Amino acid sequence: MSFVSHQLRCIGSGERIAPDAVSSDFRDPATGELYEVEYPWSETRGDAASLRPKAQALRHLWAERRDSTLPIDASGVWRYRDLLPILKDENNAVTLREGNTPLYDLPRTAKLLGLDFLLAKHQGMNPTGSFKDTGMTTALSVAAERGYKWVACASTGNTSAAMAAYAARAGLRAIVFIPEGKIAWGKLSQSMDYGALTVQLKTDFDGCVKLLTKIVRENPIYLLNSVNPYRLEGQKTPAIEICEQLDWQVPDHVIVPGGNLANGSALGKGFTELKHLGFIDRVPKISVIQAAGANPLFQWFTNAEKQLHPVTADTRATAIRIGNPASWRKAARVIEATGGWCEQADENEIAVAKAQIGAEGIGCEPASAVTLAGLKKLLKSGHVQTGERVVLLLTGHTLKDPEYTIDFHKDLLATDVAEAAPYRRPPLILDSNESSVMRALEAEMAGSV
Ligand code: F0G
After folding, report:
1. How far is the CA of 54 from the centre of ligand 1 (A)?
2. CATH code of the domain in which 118 resides
3. Which atom of ligand 1 is nearest to the CA of 235?
4. Is residue 334 part of a domain?
5. 235 pLDDT exceeds 50?
6. Ligand 1 centre from 337 Cα, in Å?
7. Residue 210: in which H helix or E strand, if any?
8. Is the pTM above the cut of 0.90?
9. Which residue, 190, 219, 278, 292, is most buried by CB atoms nearer than 10 A?
10. Is 215 inside a domain boundary?
């Protein structure tokens, strides 16, 4: 990888700093705002056409790399490293062959909603089972290259699982802060399995962030939450992969779940850079869906105030149980710039949507299902038209939170809507003989059309 210098640009003031001048909490001390990575060819640098990577040549190069056996070519993030020159030496990339995730069609759901084109980009098919791997490979590689021994994050579970895994690969020590009691077991177990120091704090995600921010200010520990702009560089690559998988035909609308609100921002950056560099001729609308119990951006959007009001978050979609999202300004800009929308989905809507995605043979974790729940509402409100080509971003694997799924099927989630009933498949506990099994099977056959 030829090293192209990059800078960090404050999204509030537009001021630029050298990468190693950034404060440990990744906020501009003057404005309190976050940074984004800016390259010499970025749109914000003006019209430096001669510096722009050439789209046609890169498309070929990226296709060729698919046949390579080099780990960084086999990675669905570093394969696009020409658009993320953040390392001095590409041999420092820490990769688990992330990315390369499938783009599935959802035929039954599309029919139900009257859509011709509905796809799911399943980021839960990453090595640790969530989209976080795409951003962790980039940001943790930066930490390793800069010689850090310790990395840290506050997490609702997926970031910590990804960070623990990549830290272990790189031989770094990891410390994870997670809210006690409000985390899915699959995620908690991963962090321990990969050898991180796992700390369950008696607070929520927002409380974990607060304490960790103080600790990284005073210790040589590299912060890997999504305030770290290198996380977003990796998380922009699914935008490239979606376009590549669609033979460079841009979808009309991409719908993402919103928690700390980095992911929608990262995809927006990805699509916008592709357009600026001439890979695609337009940027899709990007809509963000929050859980109704953790909806500060939705509230900001519907009231259009200047400031975001944090909420006390509560939802069984624990991945997005976040009341004070760090990247809200970046996400709001992407939604507004692309013509997307912000919606919310209540607990019933999330549960039904998750069951519908499961019934397609794909499955996802509850936080991912807000995308389908939100799509239904966007169709009703006219923010999505039935003729649009829609891509849902599924962020986590169904096995991340099996307890939620079991509770749904056993009717323990208190989903009180009629749409849930046809999807419920509670396990049958039967006497171990043929006749009792046959009776159950016949009843099922009589019930199905
Ligand atoms: N979906 C899943 C499965 C997540 O784990 C998260 C965030 C999101 C969606 C929302 O993404 O924060 O970029 O808006 N999980 C965090 C974590 C915050 O700690 O794992 P976002």
Report:
1. 33
2. 3.40.50.1100
3. 13
4. yes
5. yes
6. 22
7. helix 205-218
8. yes
9. 190
10. no
How many domains, the chain?
1
| 188 domain residue, yes or no | no
- DSSP assignment of 233-288: HHHTHHHHHHHHHTTTPPPSEEEEE-SSSHHHHHHHHHHHHHHHTTS-SSPPEEEE
pLDDT in tens, 335-344: 999 999 999 9
Q: Is 56 a member of any domain?
A: no
> Domain limits at 323?
103-128+232-422
Give the ligand 1 atom nearest the CA of 261. Answer: 14
Give residue-wise pLDDT tens across range 115-152.
999 999 999 999 999 999 999 999 999 999 999 999 99
Q: Does 52 score more than 90 pLDDT?
A: no
DSSP-based helix, strand, coil % in the chain, nearest 5: 45, 15, 40
d(CA 145, CA 225): 18
Structure tokens at 360: 């397609």
Neighbours of 210 (CB within 10 A): 14
Q: Do residues 421 and 447 lie in contact, with contact meaning Cβ atoms separated by under 8 Å? A: no
For ligand 1, whether the C-beta of 371 sits within 6 Å is no
Give pLDDT tens digits for 313-340: 999 999 999 999 999 999 999 999 999 9
135 token code pair: 């951003």
Q: Does ligand 1 come within 6 angstroms of the Cβ of 155?
A: yes
User: pLDDT tens digits, residue range 192-216?
Assistant: 999 999 999 999 999 999 999 999 9
